[in-house]
Design goal:
By secondary structure, this protein is mostly helical. The protein contains four helices and no strands.
C-alpha cells in the first residue's frame, strides 16, 4: 500500500519553533532529528511546545507504526 501524502511536520514544527518558540527548539531537537516523524512524535512535539491540553480524542488517528508502539508499551507495562 502506498503511503498517503502527509504534511511535512518537520518543516512545520521547525518554522513554528524558529518564529514563535525559539526557547523550546533545543528541547524538541531529538524528536525532530528522526528520519520520519510518526503520529506519536507529532503528539510529543505538541506536548513539548504547548504543554498538556485537554482535547477531544474521538477523531484522533494513528499510523500503523504508532499503533504497534502503543501496543508494545501496553504489553510491557502489563496494561490490557
Amino acid at each position: 500500500m502506498e503511503d498517503a501524502i502527509r504534511p511535512n511536520y518537520r518543516r512545520l514544527y521547525m518554522d513554528m519553533l524558529d518564529w514563535k518558540y525559539p526557547e523550546k527548539k533545543e528541547a524538541c531537537a531529538k524528536v525532530l532529528k528522526k528520519s520520519k516523524l510518526e503520529a506519536l512524535d507529532v503528539i510529543t512535539l505538541n506536548t513539548m511546545i504547548f504543554g498538556e491540553r485537554k482535547s477531544n480524542q474521538k477523531h484522533k488517528s494513528y499510523d500503523q507504526n504508532s499503533i504497534l508502539e502503543i501496543l508494545a508499551y501496553q504489553k510491557k507495562k502489563s496494561m490490557q
